[in-house]
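Hi C.,

You asked whether I'd gotten around to modeling the 262-residue construct. I have! Everything is below, sequence then structure, no commentary in between.
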Amino acid sequence: MQYSFYAMSHVGQVRGNNEDALAFDEALGIAVLADGMGGYNAGEVASGMAVASIKSELLSWLGTEAHGSNPAEIARGIALCVGRANHSILYAAKSNPQYAGMGTTIVAGVFKNNCLILGHVGDSRGYRWRDGVLAQITRDHSLLQERVDAGLLTPEQAAVAPGRNLLTRALGVEDGVQVELHEHEVLDGDVYLMCSDGLTDMLSDVEIANAMGLCAVLPEIALDLVAKANAAGGRDNITVLLVRARAAKGKPGLMSRLFGGP
């Protein structure tokens, strides 16, 4: 499977700074997105630390033959990298008064062959667009989601209920962090979306699906999603990271290479 990546981040219409962060490595199929929180610029620090640390350590992890090809080993690597980032952020928050209380969500994926290994903490989300259908493939770690799981709220009620950004998990809050990990089969033509809640708080899944279906190429999808979120109010930073999967074409035979065959 071959993967193409495109990302876009916008400060939105209300915030004065951007506390989201993202990074990807197309060659090794790494995608990481974080949404920071904290006073002053502390949210920027937390999300930036998380993304830089996780990407760097995943590059090292995937560079070894023992870890780079097995989905279970990749999942273990994501969990270890997120755990180390959590400790670094927590230590920085405790060591620097200006960073006290900072933290961040994270969603981190590795696309390997026909598989996506996805880990997340918090309410930054992952979606899959396949055959005209949008599916959320992460589950928010939030108080509202717990109420939905308990049958106290419907998803529709939760979408408009107050307190939707009260998280039950985040990096930089406690000594340990539980990373939710899942493995997903990737099919030819799939498009994957990672995003901060600046997108999902402004747009419903139906509106996101409409944008995914109307636009043909990744930059157009990203631009349309960000524009629509801003038009809806842009109350938070808006970050999207898109990945398209295409079946790898087989290498041409010797005669084709010699004589320019298809």
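If it helps when you're writing up: The first strand starts at residue 2 and ends at 10.

Thanks,
B.
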